[in-house]
Amino acid sequence: MDKSKVQVTMFWLKLVNLKQLKRFLGMTSYYREFIKEYATLASSLSDLLKKKNFNWNAKTKKAFDEVKAVVTQAPVLTLPDFS
Fold first, then answer.
1. Between the CA of residue 38 and those of 41, 46, 69, what are the distances in Å?
2. pLDDT per residue over 3-19, tens digit each?
């Protein structure tokens, strides 16, 4: 795994608006098939899409950090060995 390619995701500090949240969930949902219980991990973030108010709190921060950590781990980003 090339650390420079996932560095942007690893150092993403906070989502400040709905547009950034949609961008982050769109990027991470690409890997949802490879992440066990992705929907459960991202549920707090997905709930922010349903509401009219964007309320960033400790629960959403924890979910954001967990999804960010899981997406940037090597088992998700490693290419399969077909030999």
1. 5, 11, 12
2. 666 666 666 777 888 89
Within a domain: residue 58? yes
Tally of structural domains, the chain: 1
Is the pLDDT confidence value at 60 over 70? yes
- Evaluate whether residue 46 is within a structural domain: yes
Q: How far is CA 83 from the centre of its chain?
A: 31
Query: Which residue in this structure is represented by tokens 């960010």?
Result: 68
* Residues 64, 48: Cα–Cα separation, whole Å: 12
Radius of gyration of the chain (CA): 13
Q: What is the span of the domain harbouring residue 40?
A: 13-72
Does a structural domain hold residue 79? Answer: no
**Backbone CA torsion sign across 43, 44, 45, 48:** positive
